[in-house]
Amino acid sequence: MMHVVLSIVFENRLLFPPITRPRRVLECGFGAGDWAIDVAQQHPNCEVVAIDICPHIWPDESQTPTNLNLQVDDLNSRYISRRASAADHALRRWSRRYLDSMQPYKDPRAPMQMQSWMQSAGFDSVETQMIPLPTCGWSNDPRQHQIGVANRENVRRMLASLAMYPMTEFRGMTSQEFQVLVAQARSEADNPAFRDERLVVETSR
């Protein structure tokens, strides 16, 4: 009811000051979630994170927008956004540890250098294109959504198969530590609110 009252008071304005294309919105203490749902619906390309300590009045998550992420947290304790904290971002931890474990042997980022290598070898008219590849079906664009849905299982498998040997053999992670990291990274890759994507590098001449 309070959301209805405030909507009248603020003449249906949801954000102050006016923001035309917000990228991320955090609501602290969302209650029944009415305001967060309205913001997520009005701005489908915005990631909306809403936190509250009391989950029993949550809205039905099956009816909430895919760009809305509801979380349980205590506002009286120190809160750190998972998106804003690189140290607590499982996909970034996975990437950092994988690159670190592969450094003495191979460079997984070699495709990023392909254009300069080909030009150094004498090729001309070399072009590199960075192609976004969604990790799940979070995109509102029909084509990107289809790609993300098709790519989801591939990402889940890759997070385990690509890194298991180098992380456990080269950097000494235990099997349990590795499985925990993979599970957390998979959870983030599957979460539409993270809007995560990988980049495919295409080099041609």
Automatic annotation (TrEMBL):
Q: Known InterPro entries for this protein? A: SAM-dependent_MTases_sf (IPR029063)
An example GO biological process term is: methylation
Q: Name one GO molecular function term.
A: methyltransferase activity
Q: Does the keyword Transferase apply?
A: yes
Q: Which UniProt keywords apply?
A: Methyltransferase, Transferase
UniProt cross-references to CDD domains, sorted A to Z? AdoMet_MTases
Question: Where on the tree of life does the source sit, at the highest rank?
Answer: Eukaryota
User: Which residue windows are coiled coil?
Assistant: none
Q: Under which name does UniProt file this protein?
A: UMTA methyltransferase
